[in-house]
Amino acid sequence: MRELTGKVAVITGAGSGIGRGLAQAFAAAGMRLVLADIDGASAEETCALLQLPPSRAIPAQVDVAQLTDVERLADVAYGQFGAVDVLCNNAGVVPWQRAGDADRLVWEWVVAVNIWGVINGIETFLPRMRAQGTPGHIVNTASIAGVLPSRVSSLYSTTKFAVVGLSETLREELKETGIGVSVLCPGAVRTRIRETSGQNHPAGMDAAAAVPNRTGLGAAAGALEPEKVAAMVLDAIRDNRLYIFTEPALRPLVDERWRLMME
Ligand code: NAD
User: Fold this and answer.
1) ipTM of this complex > 0.95?
2) For residue 155, which of 95, 130, 160, 165 is within the disulfide window of CB 3.0 to 4.6 Å?
3) Which atom of ligand 1 is nearest to the CA of 66?
4) How many other CB atoms are found less than 10 A from the CB of residue 88?
């Protein structure tokens, strides 16, 4: 998709961090936007920041883990704009526990948001995007923790490896359709993920549970600003590239993994 002006993008997790950065970069590229977040007020805030009329950008309160919410999001997007060209399954959470010590509710929550959230987006939007018969693109946000072992949490890595695997294979499956797939694998990006994850804890968990900063996720010195990441995503959509690594040193490791798989 070389030309993005006027194209319609749906972004989940658009109320904060990388999702907000994507919204700003896409708006600057002349795209029309549906900005979804479980925190509806934060989605509205992103929308207000863009200073665009409803013909260009609308907010939506959506829990990506709930299929009915995502179906409603699709109805809103198609109702408002009549098409969806770019889908960014970006919403995600980071857990505060590791395998072996984790409450089952925390496992279920992380899997529901980080894996089912992406599946719900794909299963809901892809058939409609295919039916449009126009070029499209899906960007799934994974992590470096979806490519290499990380210090964040085994729960988090489980979900992000799933998103990488899904994205790699979906791209192959969609090869003939004109719909590209990219997977965003950031390292540390300056966002509020540890706080927002603490706020969006599953029912019954301690609301004050803090996500420990084991890796600097979201805050490390040298962390990238979301705008930088968003610019990389725009380039990857235009060039139809699969991997979006914010740390270029990772590329050879992934190439080696593919080589071993294909042998
Ligand atoms: P963030 O917390 O700033 O933004 C995430 C947004 O997702 C928040 O606004 C939150 O309210 C929303 N959200 C949470 N659960 C949701 C749900 N069930 N439905 C809809 N929205 C929901 O965090 P971020 O760092 O911008 O994270 C965006 C993505 O980037 C995540 O998938 C995360 O795993 C990934 N990531 C972040 C980093 C980093 O260092 N920040 C690194 C690698 C990957």
Assistant:
1) yes
2) 95
3) 18
4) 29
Residue nearest atom 33 of ligand 1, based on CA coordinates? 92
The span from the CA of 219 to the CA of 216, in Å, is 5
Ligand 1 pocket member 138 (CB < 6 A): no
d(CA 244, CA 143): 10
Condensed to tens digits (0 to 9), the pLDDT of residues 133-151 reads 999 999 999 999 999 888 8
Please name the residue ranges forming H helices in 82-180.
104-111, 117-132, 154-173
Ligand 1 pocket: which of 71, 114, 196 to mutate (most atoms within 8 A of CB): 196
Q: Which residues are catalytic?
A: 156
Q: Residue 220: its pLDDT value, please? A: 65
Provide the pLDDT for residue 207: 57
For ligand 1, whether the C-beta of 93 sits within 6 Å is yes
Question: Which of 43-47, 96-100, 141-145 is predicted with the least confidence, judged by mean pLDDT?
Answer: 96-100
Q: What is the mean pLDDT of residues 162-172?
A: 97
- Who's near 226: CB < 8 A, 6+ residues apart? 17, 18, 20, 21, 22, 189, 190, 191
CA distances from 116 to 22, 80, 110, 123 (A): 21, 25, 9, 10
